[in-house]
Amino acid sequence: xxxxxxxxxxxxxxxxxxxxxxxxxxxxxxxxxxxxxxxxxxxxxxxxxxxxxxxxxxxxxxxxxxxxxxxxxxxxxxxxxxxxxxxxxxxxxxxxxxxxxxxxxxxxxxxxxxxxxxxxxxxxxxxxxxxxxxxxxxxxxxxxxxxxxxxxxxxxxxxxxxxxxxxxxxxxxxxxxxxxxxxxxxxxxxxxxxxxxxxxxxxxxxxxxxxxx
Amino acid sequence: xxxxxxxxxxxxxxxxxxxxxxxxxxxxxxxxxxxxxxxxxxxxxxxxxxxxxxxxxxxxxxxxxxxxxxxxxxxxxxxxxxxxxxxxxxxxxxxxxxxxxxxxxxxxxxxxxxxxxxxxxxxxxxxxxxxxxxxxxxxxxxxxxxxxxxxxxxxxxxxxxxxxxxxxxxxxxxxxxxxxxxxxxxxxxxxxxxxxxxxxxxxxxxxxxxxxx
Lengths: 213, 213
Fold this sequence. Notes:
globular; homodimer; 8 helices; Glutathione S-transferase Yfyf (Class Pi), Chain A, domain 2; Glutaredoxin; about 210 residues
């Protein structure tokens, strides 16, 4: 296998934490997003969507979506379990992963990619050019607040997002928290007690500490 | 189990096709989206995100994201397999599902929910009100075209999205195709030969034919 990675971006970071939690050593190719190394004809052969991370399998198949590669790694290296033990827990992990991605991550991306600091024409990832839409900056800010309110409510009901155990849903939610903090310059956990408790606990895990970004 | 469903909307339809493919009989509660029956205090107890479908388990747990409920049903009723046999095929199903959802479905939703035909204040699903942003109608149209170009290219390489076999990735992609046709009034498969071949084949499946919407 080969892992295409860049430490500064949320999606590679999610999969990077999974690899660290499982103690895996996968040969890693750094693709420098800040220098635009993902937007090249060379990288297009690996991933025509120009996104990171990518997990290249030994037969050359390139898996390009984070959830798909985490599921693959979980099948090959089941310990420690991160995707749920039984059908119900697995469903709750997928559910809280998708809630976090669709309601949280997409809102943060809106806020980030439509602001004047972000290069014009790149309001969505990938090779097609989309102009900034300034109204999405405000909408993104509102989505981020609604997302953190939802996480905080959930974390008042259970210790972790999918239940009483740390899973990939927490890894995704945590990475989105830190991405939001970087993008907005604000600490989303502030005044949200459950979110603060959970965030600080995850931040102290060796697999999370070990990773820059 | 109990299944909260409405036949006119794409996400319930995806899970409804899975239930039909597996030949399951699950007690079903119709929640009429057109009459706003999902935007009530009563339904909020089932799903605070006010979305459909929902799969309520026997212990009262409500699973609210389509992928999570399809995974759950696949674990309980593995035949016919729709989520992949081995780790690699499972990863490809998840990958093409997520590509279709993030690049296709979200673009169609942009086009749909920001047009003047759609009620104001509901540009995103859920209880938080977001105003229409007219620029997203054009952007949605462009995303839809880019998505269908990508599906057509992929379906020139393999018979189905995840490989040589019909899976949940095809169910999702097909439902998005039909949703785009309804929203835009245009046949997305037109002039795209691979997409037409695949779409027509899926449309003729008994589990797909049986379902209205």
